[in-house]
Amino acid sequence: MTQQLKVVKTEDEWRKQLGDLEYHVLREAGTERPFTGEYTDTTMEGVYECRACGAELFRSDEKFESHCGWPSFFAPLAEDRVVYLEDKTLGRARVEVRCASCGSHLGHVFHGEGYETPTDDRYCINSVCLVLKPAR
Prior knowledge:
Mean pLDDT: 93
CATH architecture: Beta Complex
Number of strands: 9
Strand content: 25-35%
Number of domains: 1
Radius of gyration: 14 Å
Shape: globular
Number of helices: 2
Distance between the termini: 35 Å
Low-confidence stretches: none
Strand order of the largest sheet: 3-4-8-7-6-5
Helix content: 10-25%
């Protein structure tokens, strides 16, 4: 990542702050198993923050049911909240989504899958990367 991060920690600091699965997904670009995440089926109103740094990333208004096994959003809270990286790890090009504040891996974004959303984008985000702050 070439942009300047707002939150910078050593890998030892991240390991102390995050649990094993959180560290694997957020810092090593892993993936939680489908249909196991805390927010896969959540409909509570609020703002989803980055579990690593607390940056606000997505609103519940942009969350939709994609039945893919992970929380899905059709847009981030604002484009400056995430960064996009090319990912060819599975033998095909995908677009990785990372937190713009701390550089943590969140998931991937897919375009043109035919979902009836305003953007036809599916931000497929690992629950373990998020913390939902309920609306007041």
